[in-house]
């Protein structure tokens, strides 16, 4: 530890340069990772907020909740089996602060309501709860919004982060929803579904149970966005490994004579190797932790309209991967350090 720290202080400019590069790479990785998570949540946060294990949908080739049309007779059978009321969805356009917003309107389902950020769930037929992304223009509880066509709705509450396929979700009570919407899709979110109940449902013609992952995989925008963003993150980690490999390898070559002298006076290779590992860990940790602090601070001031979401588990994963990548990237330096011959390093072989 002492040897590693003394060398960092002696070559401080070199190590500061490495830290700055790791800092920039860390910010890029964390920002793209947060963007990927934010876009993912804009696709599936409505499903995540339900905490449901299974969904009963129309048995289509692709399980898409916005295209699930379950007939009244089938609905009655499902309700008899599951004792669960349906979640209904309809596309609507709201006029909010002179702007038109395409939204997904849902009814109120007991035990499957998304969390409220503030206010209350709609109880009157002319009340609506808005997703928090829609209030960026200055809408508050008690204000009114218009459905395209003229109907006015009073805002009773703000839903916390509830979206589906990049559309904000708004909620009305059952009577108000049925009165306003004619063309609706029907889904049954169920949990604690027994094998017997699932078998009875799957034996019904035209309906089937699906998991959240099966539904998520069929959201067109989800896979299209996540694949390139994840590829960019992987590419940045590869770039980090290459950059760190080059820096530490060049530094090791520049210190060949010093390493040879240390070996000649009896310093074991394992001590030199541990000093190099400590230097890598110190520079990587400082750079990554500063980048974590910067990105975390930025996430607090970013507007709610920006699709950015970062979690503690995501931050810890990025830090761990950076440490692993740094050590892998310095593998060439490890090999070079092992091969240094003390006699040749100090010119004794000439």
Automatic annotation (TrEMBL):
Q: How does it sit in the membrane?
A: Multi-pass membrane protein
**Where does the UniProt annotation locate this protein?**
Cell membrane
Tagged with keyword Transmembrane: yes
Domain ABC3 transporter permease C-terminal: from-to ranges: 231-342
- State the InterPro entries in the record: ABC-4/HrtB_transporter, ABC3_permease_C
Q: Where are the transmembrane segments?
A: 12-36, 231-251, 272-295, 315-335
List where this protein forms a coiled coil. none
Keywords associated with the record: Cell membrane, Membrane, Transmembrane, Transmembrane helix, Transport
Member of which family?
Belongs to the ABC-4 integral membrane protein family. HrtB subfamily.
Function statement: Part of the ABC transporter complex hrt involved in hemin import. Responsible for the translocation of the substrate across the membrane.
This protein's assembly is summarised as:
The complex is composed of two ATP-binding proteins (HrtA), two transmembrane proteins (HrtB) and a solute-binding protein.
Q: What is this protein called?
A: Putative hemin transport system permease protein HrtB
Protein species of origin: Staphylococcus succinus
């Amino acid at each position: 530890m002492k040897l590693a720290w003394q060398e960092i202080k002696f070559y401080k400019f070199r190590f500061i340069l490495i830290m700055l590069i790791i800092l920039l790479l860390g910010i890029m990785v964390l920002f793209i990772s947060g963007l990927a998570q934010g876009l993912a949540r804009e696709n599936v946060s409505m499903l995540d907020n339900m905490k449901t294990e299974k969904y009963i949908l129309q048995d289509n080739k692709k399980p898409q909740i916005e295209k699930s049309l379950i007939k009244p007779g089938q609905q009655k059978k499902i309700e008899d089996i599951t004792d669960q009321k349906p979640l209904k969805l309809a596309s609507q356009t709201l006029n909010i602060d002179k702007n038109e917003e395409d939204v997904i309107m849902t009814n109120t389902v007991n035990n499957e309501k998304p969390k409220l950020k503030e206010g209350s769930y709609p109880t009157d037929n002319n009340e609506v709860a808005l997703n928090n992304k829609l209030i960026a223009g200055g809408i508050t509880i008690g204000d009114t919004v218009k459905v395209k066509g003229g109907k006015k709705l009073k805002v009773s509450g703000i839903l916390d982060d509830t979206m589906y396929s990049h559309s904000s979700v708004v909620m009305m009570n059952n009577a108000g929803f049925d009165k306003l919407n004619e063309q609706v899709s029907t889904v049954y979110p169920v949990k604690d579904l027994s094998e017997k109940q699932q078998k009875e449902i799957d034996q019904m013609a035209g309906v089937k149970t699906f998991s959240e992952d099966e539904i998520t995989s069929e959201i067109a925008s989800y896979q299209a966005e996540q694949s390139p963003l994840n590829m960019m993150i992987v590419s940045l980690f590869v770039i980090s490994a290459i950059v760190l490999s080059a820096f530490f390898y060049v530094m090791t070559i520049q210190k060949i004579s010093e390493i040879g002298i240390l070996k000649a006076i009896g310093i074991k290779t394992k001590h030199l190797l541990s000093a190099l590992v400590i230097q890598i860990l110190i520079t990587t940790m400082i750079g990554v932790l500063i980048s974590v602090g910067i990105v975390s601070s930025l996430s607090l001031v970013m507007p709610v309209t920006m699709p950015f979401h970062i979690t503690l588990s995501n931050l810890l994963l990025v830090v761990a991967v950076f440490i692993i990548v740094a050590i892998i990237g310095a593998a060439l330096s490890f090999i070079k350090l092992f091969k240094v011959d003390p006699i040749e390093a100090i010119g004794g072989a000439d």
